[in-house]
Amino acid sequence: MAERTDRAVGENVTGAGGGGPRRDGLSPSEVERLLAAHQSTVRPRLDLMWRYYRNPLTLTNAQGSAGNPTPAAYDIGQRSGLPARLVGRAHAGLDDRARSREIVIENDIAWRIHTMVDFMFGKPVRLVSTARDEATQTRIERMLDAVWEGSGGIALLQDMALLGHVYGHVDLVLRIDEARLRSLAQTADAADPWHVRECIRVEVIEPTRGVPVVAEGEWRELAAYIIHAERESDPEQHRRGPLGEWLESWRRGRTHGPEAGSTPDGITEVIESTSLRVYIDGELVEERELSLTGGRVPVVHVQNVAQPFRYGGLSEVEPLIPLQDELNTRLSDRASRVTLQSFKMYLAKGIEGFETMPVGPGQIWSTDNPDASVSAFGGDASSPSEESHIREVRDAMDKTSGVPPLATGVVQGRVGNLSSANALKITLVGLLAKTERKRVSYGRGLEEMSRLVLTALDAAGVMETDPRDRSLRLVWPDPLPTDVVDETLAAKRKIELGVPTTRVLDELGYEASDPGVV
User: Does 89 share its domain with 115?
Assistant: First the structure.
């Protein structure tokens, strides 16, 4: 996704507070060009997918008598995909009557995305060390559990999965307070994971803020990574110091990404293999070395569904957009038809003042005109082709996403007999197969970031580990409800077959140190 540029070599840039020339890397002009390319080519597509997932409600200028928004004074994101005959766009030459049409928006994308995320990270995932000795395994697992929990735990994984499903990919960056971590290594608290996690954490970067710079000729390797966000407070507030509260807010991830079409002005981080630079409106305010990441950019890339020879993965929202537009169009057409036909209408001929006469039970109409007549028309009528088309569009969305309504607990008559877990798995085989496929890519990202954490702790002297002992295995829970009795019987039989007890306990979600475990 990132634009490849020719590197400027040997450019002299002085950091805040003086300093010598920086090492070779991305020049400010290259950073600005990459950000501009991202804003003009990549960001609009990402914003479109987020808008269709989120379907945000936006208030309009219409207001009631008390200055409060009226029920009709809002617009929603997916409305932009409706045809001009429904929304009455001015450039289409339609009059205001088009805007009086009934508009129905049913977001069939969001609940599917949420269901996929629930199947991926609805339950905690366990990181199991495969180190050569048991003591090392225990130390590594305790340390990684503390770091991941300090970074957000299961909430971090759910955020990562949500962004990955919507955008197609997501990036994880490792934040290290190197000075504090090295100081901690000289104290007795270095062995305590709860102190270590204050110095190192994992942060999720949404693709709208992150701009990858891939290595020349190798799309899987990062040469640098740019994180950009616009500041919201007054510019003069940023001049209080080289860092200050605004930079702390940025580091903690509380700033928001830039709006589409904005300029590169704002807070920009340029992360390279050995350095980190922070710019404010193009001015370099901080530069420091990165020495604990093993000579690599501390960013791990996660594709939602692997896409060969591309940095970005496949989004779950993108293929559903045209189907969502068709569904909203047909639902709006049906609403207009129901509105027109649900009420009786009357055509009166030869009756003076009929338009002012009340219509209701017990009302009498009279006239001296022998040719007068009143004809009634309207009333709801069935439309089998319309209902069939809407149903087929929903079925197409089920097949495209792999998420049937049954996955959310909506049981329909055609699902058959679901008296066993196997029958339920067969019904959800598409969603389960897609979940297993995505566990490979997300799991690889979690393992790679965990190894990067262990590398940094080893380089800082906090916890020494051999590279051969940094491999991990993920224990994924069953996304479907399980029977405790069946699980217990299966675990007992595994132990009888010679499977190590610790491994069986891991699969059950227990630890040997838990109370009551023998």
Answer: no
